[in-house]
Amino acid sequence: MATTSDISRGMILKLDGSLYSVVEFGENKTARAAAKIWAKLKGVDNKKSIEKTWNSGETIFPIRVEKRTFQFLYKDDTGYNLMNNETFEQIVLDEVMIDAPQYLKDGAEIFVFVNTDTELPIGAELPEKIVVEVTYCEPGLKGDTATRAMKQATIDTGTTVNVPLFVEVGEKIRINTKTGDYLERVKD
Predict the structure, then answer these.
(1) pLDDT tens readout for residues 47-94
(2) What is the CB neighbour count within 10 angstroms for residue 56?
(3) Contacts with 11 (C-beta within 8 Å, 6 or more apart), sequence order
(4) Is 170 exposed, middle or buried (0-12, 13-18, 19+ CB in 10 A)?
(5) Which fold has domain 2-60?
(6) How far apart are CA 164 and CA 182, in angstroms?
(7) Which residue, among 157, 158, 188, 184, has the nearest Cα to 173 in the 3D structure?
(8) pLDDT, tens digit, for every residue of 11-28?
(9) What's the rounded mean pLDDT across residues 156-164?
(10) H or E element: which one contains 175?
(11) Is 2-60's fold the same as 65-125's?
């Protein structure tokens, strides 16, 4: 059994029949009373954000989660169709279960988090950095590179991102999927 001393950032806990991910946690100590452990929790299966406080040493119920690599196949009316790279098993996930689905393209790698107790997927995320191709952007102005000026560019997934003025159509760029920020140009 796990206790409050085992809490760590990113851990998934079962509370009141729902799953929550630990975003932040800490300890409050007072001179006369026992220490209290607090945590900010983000719902994995219900999209709620809550705060919870326990007495020090209280029992908690962590869920064992595995991160498995899948390949994005296509999107249809049922959702996002993914294939396990090891077993070739296919699953379908709703858009709300995927972190940053706007950056998915056919054949892309995606990580699916699976509850090992039930073998059911509880969420998915893309790698932190991905390479995409610019399909449309306005031409940049020569000589306007002294400032960090940005322009809108459409990438091959259909999403728009802000890029520096020197980026042209057809170039490959690396972006951060968590923030949507441009990171760098990629040379072939």
Answers:
(1) 789 999 999 889 999 999 899 999 999 999 999 999 998 999 999 999
(2) 15
(3) 21, 22, 62
(4) exposed
(5) SH3 type barrels. (2.30.30)
(6) 8
(7) 184
(8) 999 998 888 989 999 999
(9) 92
(10) strand 172-176
(11) no
CATH superfamily label, 65-125: Nucleic acid-binding proteins (2.40.50.140)
- Which pair of tokens denotes residue 67? 């991160």
Q: Residue 117: what pLDDT?
A: 87
pLDDT (mean) for 30-49: 86
Domain ranges across the chain: 2-60, 65-125, 129-186
Residues 6+ apart with CB under 8 A from 90: 73, 81, 82, 83, 84
**Residue 30 neighbours by CB under 8 Å, 6+ apart:** none
CB 133 within 8 A of CB 105: no
CA distance 44 to 63: 12
Looking at this protein, which amino acid is placed at residue 114? V
Helix (H, G, I), strand (E, B) or coil at 6: helix
Spatial neighbors of 63 by CB under 8 A, at least 6 apart, are 12, 13, 14, 19, 115, 116, 117
Topology of domain 129-186, per CATH? OB fold (Dihydrolipoamide Acetyltransferase, E2P) (2.40.50)
